[in-house]
Give the backbone structure.
Amino acid sequence: MASKLKQSNRAGWLMALPGAGLIGLFIIIPFVLAFAFSLTNQRLASPNPTEFIGLENYSELLGLAVFTLEPERDDAGNAVVEDGEIQYPRLRKFTRKNAEFPHLDGKREWFSWQSGENRTVVLASDVVFMKALMNTILFVIVVAPLQSAIALTLALLINQKLRGISLFRAIYFMPVVVSIVIVSILWKFIYSPGDGLLNNILSAFTFGAFEPHDWLGDTSTALGSIIAMSIWQGVGFHMVIWLSGLQTISPTLYEAAEIEGSKKWQTFRYVTWPGLRNTAVLILIVITMQAFALFAQIDVMTQGGPLDSTQVLVFQAVERGYGKQDISGGSTISVILFVIVLSISFVQRWLTRERK
Amino acid sequence: MRLLIHTTMLAAIGFASPALAETELSMWYHGAGSANAEEKLINQLVDEFNASQSDWKVVIETFPQLAYNDAVGAAALAGELPDILDVDGPVMPNWAWANYMQPLGIDEAKLEGYLPGPIGRWNGEVYSVGLWDAAVALTTRRSTLEKYDIRIPTLEEPWSLDEFNSALEKIKASGDFEFPLDLGMAWKGEWYPYAFSPLLQSFGGDIVDRSTYQSAEDVLNGDSALAFGEWWQGLFQNKLVPGTSQDGADRETGLLEGKYAMSWNGNWAALPVVEAFGDDALFLPAPDFGNGSTIGAASWQFGISGTSKHPEGARAFIEFALQDKWFAAFSDGTGLIPVTSTAAADTANYKPGGSLEVFYGLSENQALVRPVTPGYIVQAKVFEKALADIANGADVADTLDAAVDEINEDIENNKGYGH
């Protein structure tokens, strides 16, 4: 007998269908496909049949090796030193067509350090991917705390009853509404080498003492420049979320704090901050996930350069999947990114859990 | 409901009936929103073809160039390619290999007297033909070279490596310019392999070994490629050319504004130079770095999609387009190089004595198409990154090795790309 519960159940599923169907079609199925493709040699366009190749895509991305380079020695067995630097044989002698070191074949130097006379080199199968991974993590580590802190400060500043405060709200929120592609193009002009806006401003403030800098063309400032503009662009959105959190805190709590003679800092520490707990968890997770998805700025401003200093994971996934027609390689990067973001979200959930 | 189906069916029959006499052919074109007369001319070409006969009716759809290749890829996956495609010359082998395209089946005698670049061959068959070609030249001013007492090179006797280097050094030493030469590093993407791989070829290297197309070993990282790499890096280290972060606006106007003494640029950018400098404008051939002076070739071309049900109609359209009249019209409207000398004689810029005549000679004598292989799409990307990295100071040998490894691995993963 069809009970009322079962009938309502069917109606419930029906109502959930549009949403669930879309999520399934555009999020779950693509992810399952990406995982499946990552185990094959699927190409974007190819007459060759797709083949199952197991975890080869993963080992090609993640393969690492450590190798110790011994210095070049003269006849007496001493290390050759030129211009105060110990000379080493070229790595390509060992990594290319050398039957004695099959495990180094095709690998490239990622980074190295000196230990005594020897140089220890860490080699990676895919140095570009490794750099992209490190840059992405660095980006997240800098952006997540900094952007949420600045957004909170802005939210506290505009959460006041002053004349014209909505003007400030609009100004801070403006970059969010502008397309990130437009923002990136504008900031490319700002960072332009030579006579860009930033160089002009800095040189005006220092009365000409500042030497124009090639912000995006220098490996030491490229990623930092992108971090700065990304924070500027994204901060307004999180400010609004903080603001909504601030406005849910009951004014009576503030009144009580005032009566108790609480100082400004104490009010923030014991009234505002505990009241923002859930907002903080939300913002941290959202910013982390958005930061991992960094793409448009890189695509428009640097294309991963100079010298891979701004390579990031999503850019690499797109570059490989579409640019180089290697759908399986791009899918593999996406799966790795998914695993990283998922585990970080779990860790964040656990760290910010309600302690009873 | 039933009524609705009937009406739809009636409507379908109603729309289909004129097609019994006239079969519709779909055509995709990359030039939507083009700044010059290109889009107008292509529509005119289609209209005149449709009026000229009653068997076929071409319906054109234009795309912005940046979205075009993606659209074709997506349509191929969905099995919805149009009958007539236009395709960028170096990309054609990839599309032919992936069965996006079929051989043109055109009588090759009709292509006699054409420049080499606009004819797209893959696996011994013609797949695409273009109505125009493009060429690159060292653009500068006669007065500049005379001021620094530099020989004006000719097609027969281009600059040698030493001559070119000393010319750059001389201009640099004068301090009159921000940079002696502008290579156009601001133009990312296809510009790098199109404009710079001929320089590598002139040194004796190449992107991939063209005898087999199975490996880049010793070609992209052999001795001559290493020599090219060191020279290339030197240009940037010695501040002879602006680097990869060059401002796009400087690329467009730097030569005209006197920031740069010379610019490595295409014929499509030549008319403003002629307008600004008049007879003083010079378009010089690429230097000969030891293995001949050479430039890239092949621009956009027409072909028939692999799934077209009416290849004979598509062929009729393409043959209709291959007339001197259209070569000349497109050249006048866009500044591009007409593909036959007879058409060139009818154009404003490429006729004997015309201001861009020299480009026709460059295309005719020096043009070498980019590697004719389906793997070119990947190889172009790898080459672009290697050149950008070397310009930014990466180790030359290691960078070229890595490029070779990536190219070879890709060829292997694609089972030799059908060569």
The interface with chain B takes residues 41, 43-48, 90-92, 96, 106, 108-109, 127, 192-194, 196, 214, 216-217, 219, 303, 305-308, 319, 322-326 of chain A (CB under 8 Å). The beta strands of chain A are 64-69, 81-82, 85-86, 108-115, 118-124.
